[in-house]
Amino acid sequence: MTEKSDDSDISRPYEKLILVCTQGKSCPRQGGAEICSKLREQVFQAGQKNRIRVVKSGCLAQCGHGPIVAVEPEGTWFSAVQADHCEKLADWILNRGPLPEGLIFDPPEEGKNILPEADWRIPPQTSGEAGNSAI
Ligand code: FES
């Protein structure tokens, strides 16, 4: 059996949970699965897979703003995350880089925020590759 760290107040098996939307109307068509894979790889390469869990999430009801990445327990959500953002986002998640402020999600309203496809921040992919956008 693996020993817990010396933080005896810990009540969860992972320090951070990263939810990457990969199901629903938009995120799967905007590269959500690729984002999840890239973030997982960064966490794995940093040797932090026992501290940080990156999971594929169901729809987070923010369709069209995605791909959506939610970092808990920080409660910081990111929108329109693209593959070329993952290294900087992972650096922040791993506490080795600044917060990528340009990716922080600013939800229009509390609760559901679903855009019609014509207004999606990232257009749906047709070839399996997401477009690039700067942070
Ligand atoms: S498909 Fe990602 S929030 Fe709905």
Task: Please name the defining characteristics of this protein.
4-stranded mixed sheet; 14% strand; disordered C terminus; binds FE2/S2 (inorganic) cluster
The CATH topology annotation of one domain reads as Glutaredoxin
Count of DSSP helices? 2
Helical content band: 10-25%
Q: What's the end-to-end separation, in Å?
A: 42 Å
Q: What is the CATH top level name of one domain?
A: Alpha Beta
The pLDDT mean sits at 90
If classified by CATH, what would the architecture of one domain be?
A: 3-Layer(aba) Sandwich
Largest sheet: 4 strands, mixed
Please trace the helix and strand order, writing H or E for each element.
Answer: EHEEEH
- By DSSP, the count of extended strands is 4
Output the strand order for the largest sheet.
2-1-3-4
Low-confidence stretches: 128-135
Instruction: Give the overall shape, derived from the CA principal axes.
Output: globular
Computed structural class: alpha+beta
List the helices and strands and how they pair.
Layout: E1 16-21, H1 32-45, E2 52-57, E3 69-72, E4 76-78, H2 86-93
Parallel strand pairs: 1-2
Antiparallel strand pairs: 1-3, 3-4
The structure holds FE2/S2 (inorganic) cluster.
